[in-house]
Amino acid sequence: MTAPVSVDVSCLLGDAGGDPAAAVHRAVASGFTAVEPWAFDQHVDAYRTALRASGASAPSGRASTLDAERPDDVFDAALELGIGVVVDGCTDAGRWSSAERAAQLAARVNDLAAAAHARGLRLAYRTGSVELRSTVHGTHALHVFVRQLDPRVGLDVDVFAASAAGTNAALLLQVLGERVRILHLTDGSFDSPAPRQRPLGWGGLNLPRILRAAPQAARVLTFTDPAADVTASLRRSLRWLQAHEDQQTHQP
Fold this sequence. Notes:
This is Sugar phosphate isomerase/epimerase. This protein is of the alpha/beta class.
């Protein structure tokens, strides 16, 4: 594999009693060498100590910048923790209700990306399902939004959320192209009224096609189904991804 696979630390907080440092150590014990800290600006000391003690890296991290009064504080925290890509998103359906609202959000993201770039950081917008469930003039609000983004803004695509919204995730990634910098990965089953998450390789997503559609994107594993063993599910996903990408590497 060409790059370490990260795990979304927020998935492990429940098993770690809500302790970010314990969640990082649990991730490393599960076989991960990289993590994506969640709300890292609120837990800088805990993450700093855990990353140093465990030897894990944090290529990306999630924090709220879109509505932050002092986004520079988030960027300072990212630099302190060695995080290169700050990830944020918006789940407020009202901000996707019109072309004007999508444009306002894009302008805010562009301003944040410029501020991040000035500090040697990158900003990635994390897409979920709301941007794909909302339509503006007959097209997904996400595409209206993306057309107005500064080229420095990356995209982080949650493939399960996109699929749950009724979108073909592989085709979406092809349309978004090189702008996709991160994939949040979990498999799923979609043959019941409520989609359910599954470990990679255990659900219905065409994961090989999805991965081929965004070879440049970093991989971040996620799993949030409270009815399942989250830690065990993440281990299964890691093993599947390692086996798949190792196989792709050694193909003639």
